[in-house]
Amino acid sequence: MKSKLFGTDGIRSKFGKTPLTTGTIKLIGYAFAKIMFNNNSGHIYISHDGRESCDSIENDLISGISYQGSSYTLLGLLPTPALSASMHQLKKKGTCAIQITASHNEYRDNGLKFFDHRGNKINDALQDQIENIVYSESSDIKTIKKNNTIDEDFKAIYVNFIREYYFTKLSNFLPINQKLNILVDCANGAFSKIIDHIFNDQNLNIIPINNEPDGKNINYKCGATNPEQISDFINFFNSQKAKSSKEKSEILKLDLGVAIDGDGDRAIFVDEYGNIIDGDDILFLLATNDINNSKKVVGTLMTNYGIRQAYQDMGIDFLETDVGDMNVIKKMQEFDCSYGGESSGHLIFNDFEDLFYGDSMITLINVIKLLLNSKKSLYNLHHHIKKIPSELINIKVSNKSTFLSNEKNMNIISYVKNEIGSNGRLLVRPSGTENVVRFLIEHRELREINVLKSYIYDNIEN
């Protein structure tokens, strides 16, 4: 039986390992062009998140695309949501796009995300067609020399798109009469070179950090998967109560922080005291403070039990789906929801015609609106949310199916579930993009989580 090429969000693996080998990448480029354009020639836009392997993957994709007879444009370092939004703005028939990225993964990993001419990720049927070609055809695709010219137009399109959304969403509050100092951790990824150009409101002070990508430092001890860095920084800086040299009575303060991931669709927030606020929290705050919300919200299997109960108390239906933004989008479309998202910070908004869209900058703008509308700080908004303690542990495995079917492991999982009982839950699921099995442990007592976590680590076979 063939291995599945696509995971929960495109294709992803270690670079140099199947499927991210030269021959397979060429076939993927060829297959994508073929299923999008049939036997005709089209045009494919290609951008990336700055990993050192992006250049090699880009070259192999181009060889496959050219073999099919289509042309290409290189966009350089660009966030995934910027590629999607720009395609949606243009809606140019006979085009599609590829983002080279492994999102929140370390630099040794890489991957591919595919978009149609409207900026939507391709559906399961198209993914299956690509897989069929890749696994059934064996073509000797020669490497061609690519044109390294970078087109900057998409950056301008995206900046204008975000600015228009900002002014539309905040029209009742502009000009902002209070200065907001926002620390943005760019994860040394795709937003690093564009973040300074996005916002032009003089009272919105965006302070970027970790915005010097070198090909290897993407997501390294920073970004959405490591928000502790900006948490510690904000907590320390604000505790100093430093005063401005220009205005002696003014105490300098960071109002909030936002940590994004390597390709820019996730956002984890930090309040002025350094408290980390994940996607569950932000989704809850946006959904429950929006009077126009349809009273339905989409979350995932990973959504905290306490948050689910809070939705119920607020009279909002919580709709559960599997992990992955495409699963969230499908459920949102089915029930016409305004909001959906994942604990990881990937939130989806139904604010755009024919596009359910996730973007860390769109999430940030909605959080800014929430702060201005409520006249409260992020801490005052979120500190009352009653989540039960939880911890996500990731166990690296050589084979996910073998690990989950191992009789000893199955018995351990059963034992832990029985120990938890009605006090919480244990959710075990294989990662869709990595050789990792994730254990989400939730329990009303943090002490019990630590005991169960140790039991798992001490007894599991991997």
Structure description:
The chain is α/β, with parallel strands linked by helices. It has three domains: 11-151, Alpha-D-Glucose-1,6-Bisphosphate, Chain A, domain 3 (3-Layer(aba) Sandwich), CATH 3.40.120; 155-382, Alpha-D-Glucose-1,6-Bisphosphate, subunit A, domain 3 (Alpha-D-Glucose-1,6-Bisphosphate, Chain A, domain 3, 3-Layer(aba) Sandwich); 390-459, TATA-Binding Protein (2-Layer Sandwich). Helices cover 37% and strands 21% of the residues. It contains 15 helices and 18 strands. It has helices at 22-37, 54-68, 80-90, 124-136, 153-169, 195-198, 228-239, 279-288, 305-313, 325-335, 360-374, 378-382, 400-405, 407-420, 446-459; strands at residues 11-14, 43-48, 71-77, 95-100, 109-115, 180-185, 204-209, 256-260, 267-270, 276-277, 296-300, 317-321, 339-341, 347-352, 355-357, 390-396, 424-430, 436-443. Strands 1-5-4-2-3 form a five-stranded mixed sheet, with helices on both faces. A five-stranded mixed sheet has the order 7-6-8-9-10, sandwiched between helices. The chain starts with 10 loop residues before the first strand and ends with a helix. The mean pLDDT is 94.
